[in-house]
Amino acid sequence: MNHCIIITGYPDNKKKLKNLLEFSNTVKSRKNNCKLCYSSHLKPESKIYDFYDYVIYTKKNPILNWDLIDDVTHTFGIVLSVNGQKIYYPQPYHGYAHHLSICDGISLGLNLRCNSFTIMNSDVIDFCIESIDNHISLLLNNISTFYTYNNDKINTEFFSCNKDFANFLYLHRYYDLYKKFNLVEYEFFMKKMI
């Protein structure tokens, strides 16, 4: 099976960069039989190229409630009550930007004729790296494998899928399709897609 591992990250400080480099080294040493792709909308440090077969840098992935603002994005925010008055503040949310980074990696993998994908944030635990082989086995009979948290959410920090699901996910890179469920949070978006 031609498998692609897509690592996403946003190492905007020295500690996150150090963690990303250590994580990248671990993935490369344990999964050298897979294609490795790093995808981010933050310009990668030159050291990152040592660990990956492919590095994707997308200069601008829009942040919801900063770059994209509409009736759907406004549902993600906080409400403060002060003296009987409600003050609503829509919070910036990176879920769609993260989705675009994933889609960029998927696009590359599909062009490389990969049959399956694992998508991981750069800050997941070693358990995830150790679980990739099991995920690949599960994909022989399933379209995707996720693990849950908080009882009702699908964890989008680590999951695997076959090329059909990856292609379906990629089609939702356009914001009009991404927002069709009237949801902002990425976990709920993925749950509805599944």
Structure, explained:
- The protein has one domain (3-60, 94-193): Spore Coat Polysaccharide Biosynthesis Protein SpsA, Chain A.
- Helices cover 35% and strands 23% of the residues.
- It contains six helices and ten strands; from the N terminus they run E-H-E-E-E-E-H-E-H-E-E-E-E-H-H-H.
- It has a six-stranded mixed beta sheet, with helices on both faces. Strands 4-5 form a two-stranded antiparallel sheet. A two-stranded antiparallel sheet has the order 8-9.
- The radius of gyration is 17 Å and the shape is globular.
- The relative contact order is 0.17.
- The mean pLDDT is 90.
Give a brief outline of the structure:
By secondary structure, this protein is of the alpha/beta class.
How do the strands and helices of this protein lay out in sequence?
Blueprint (H helix, E strand, L loop, with lengths): L2 E6 L5 H17 L4 E6 L13 E4 L19 E6 L2 E6 L4 H17 L4 E6 L4 H13 L5 E2 L2 E2 L3 E2 L3 E5 H9 L3 H4 L7 H8 L1
Parallel strand pairs: 1-2, 1-6, 2-3
Antiparallel strand pairs: 4-5, 6-10, 7-10, 8-9
Helix pairs in contact: 2-4
Q: What general outline do the C-alpha atoms trace?
A: globular
Question: Fraction of residues in helices?
Answer: 25-40%
Structure classification: alpha/beta
**CATH architecture designation:** Alpha-Beta Complex
Number of domains: 1
The number of helical runs is 6
The stretches of 5 or more residues where confidence is low (pLDDT under 50) are none
Our Rg estimate from Cα atoms comes to: 17 Å
CATH class: Alpha Beta
C-alpha termini separation: 23 Å
Number of strands: 10
Query: Into which percentage range does the β-strand content fall?
Result: 15-25%
User: What integer is the average pLDDT?
Assistant: 90
